[in-house]
Design a protein that fits this description.
The complex is a heterodimer of chains A (316) and B (304). Chain A is α/β, with parallel strands linked by helices and 316 residues long. Chain A has 13 helices and twelve strands. In chain A, the strands form two sheets. In chain A, strands 1, 2, 3, 4, 7, 8, 9, 10, 11 and 12 form a ten-stranded mixed sheet that branches. In chain A, strands 5-6 form a two-stranded antiparallel sheet. Chain B is mainly alpha-helical and 304 residues long. The chains are: A alpha/beta (316), B mainly alpha (304).
Chain lengths: 316, 304
Amino acid sequence: MADPCILGGRQAACLISRRQLPVAGLALAAGCSKVPPRPKARVFIAKAAHYNVDLVSLLERGIEACGLEVHGKRVLLKPNLVEFDSSTAINTNVAVIAAALEVFRKKGAASVVVAEGPGHRRDTIFLAEEARYRSEIEKFEELFVDLNRDDVSSVRPFATLPEIFLPRTALAADLIVSLAKMKTHHWAGATLSMKNLFGLVPGSVYGWPKNILHRIGITRSILELNRVFRNTFAIVDGIVAMEGNGPIQGTPKAAGVLVMGSDLPAVDATCCRMMDISPDSIEYLRLAEDLGQTSESQIEQCGETLASVKTTFRRA
Amino acid sequence: MGAEFSRGRLARLRDLQNPDGGWGYFPGRHSWLEPTCYALLALFPDSISPARPQDRESWLRGWNYVRSLQNPDGGWRPSAGVAAASWASALALHLHLLRGVTDESFRQGIGWLLKLRGTEGGLLERAIATVWKGAVEYDRRFKGWPWVPDTSSWIEPTAHTLLVLKKALRRGESAGVPVDLCRARIEEAENMILDRRSPDGGWNYGNRRVKNVDLPSYPETTAVALLGLQGRPEADLTRAIALAKRYFTQTRSRLARAWLAISLQNYGLEVALEECGPSNDILVTALEAIAFPQGGHQWLTPVS
C-alpha cells in the first residue's frame, strides 16, 4: 500500500522545486509579458445529499455550464479505483460513474469507456467487483480497460525520465474525464482530479505501486501527467468523501457535492477551499500555473456557492 | 478442482498464443513477458510429452519470444516495445532453470538481478526519518528488489527474485552463479521480507507501518511473500500460513486465490480451487492452471 521510499521521493521533489523556484520565478517574470492572460476558469458546484438523487441531471447541468463539447469524441471515464474497504469511501461511487456514462452517451460521444489502473491491488476486475462497478454497470467488462495492462506507447520526455510508457487507450482518447474522489492524502495533502491521473500509468511497466512516480516526486509527477493529458474534464465525487488518513485509511465524510470543470487546477483548488484546505498548502496546485487557474479571483463559480458547501476536512 | 478444469485452461492458453510466440495480458493484445512466462510454465508438462509434438513447437515459439526480450545488459524487457528491463527478468530466468539452460544468457541475467537493488534508505531519507519519526518504519539495513531499476524494494518483486535465486544457487558455480553474492543477497532479502511483515502476520506491498499507522496485509502479497520465503526454516511462518489459509477461504479475487493455492500447496497443504468459468485474463488463466495439484506449482519451489 504505502511507499517505503516516499520520504526520499517526496523530499527529492521538494528539493527540486526549491532549486527551481528562483529559475521559475525569473522565467515567469521574463515571460509574463509574452503569455496572454488566461481566461477565467468556470467551476460548477452541485449539491447532492446522497447517491440516489438525479445525478444524470446534475452532471448534465455541470457539463453545460462549463461549456464542454462532447459530440463525436472518444471519451475515457477515469474513476478513482484504488482499493476496497466496505467501512470507508475510497473509490469513486458507482452511481457517479453510471450517471457519467449515461450523460456522455446522451451528449453524442463517439465512444465511452471506463478505464483505470489501480496503484495497489493487481486484480483490477476483482476491485471493480468489490466496488460494485461490475454488477451495477451494464456490460461493464465490455466497457472497461485495465490501464495497468493495456498496450503502451512511449511519450518523451517525462520529468527526469527520457520517456514514459502510457496506455494507448488513454493516449488515443479525445477526452479524459477525471472522475475523482474527494479525499485528503497523507503525502500530497489532497487527492482530487489532478492526482487521479496517476492511475493512467501502467503497472505492467512500472509495478504496483507505481513507485517511479514517487521517485520523480509526487508533485512533479502530477504536474507532468497533467501536461501530457491536456484534453480533460473533472468530475469530483464529494457526495461521500474521505477525511483523515487518506487516500486509503481515512474515514467517510458526507460533503454532499459534485464539483466539475474543464480546468483541473481550478476544480481542485475549489475543492480544497470547500474542504477548508488552503490551495497554497498543496504543492502541486501552487506549481500548476501553466495548467490552469487556482486563484479564487480567476475562477468563475457557478451552481452552488462555495460558502454553502464549505466544510472542514480533518487531515492526517 | 478437476483435471477438466486444468485441461480447459491449458487449451485456452494454447488458443490465445500470439503469432510472435508470446501471450498478452488479454486476448488479442500485445505480448508481455509476465503472462508469457506463466503460460509457458503452465504448458511445460505437455511440451515435454513425446505424444504432443505440436505443444512442443508452440512452447518453443514462446521460449524464443522470451529469449528475444533480453537486453545486452542481461535484464529482460517487460514487452518488446519497452526498452528498460524489469522485475520480470526473474520469471525469464525461472524458465531457463526449468529447461536446464544455464548458458551465457542465463549468467548475464543472474548478474543483472544481483546488481539490481532497492534504492530506499539513502542518506537524505535517513536524515529526514530522524526528524520525522514514524513516517515509514522499516529496517534500512535490508533491501530487496524493485519493480524497475532506481526505485525501492517491494515485496512481490523481491519474493519472485528470491525464488529464482534460490533455485539458481543449487546449480552453483558450475552454472556461473556467483554463490557467495547470491547467498548474501538471499539472506538480506529474506530479512527484508520478514522485517516488513504486517502486524496481522501477512504482507502489504512494501511496508508494515506508515505515519504511525499499521498497514493491513493482502491475500496475493501474502501468498507471494510465502513463496519467496520457502526454504528459510528458522523463520516462524505459522501465523502467515494460517492467515493465507483464511484468505483462501475468504477472498473472491481469482488472482489471489490462484497465488494462495500455489503457495499453500508448496507448504504442504492440500487446497483446491473450485470450478469456475474461464477468465478473460490470461495471467489468471495460467496461474489457475499452475495451481492445479499436478499443474506445476511444485516448480515454484527452491528445490525443483
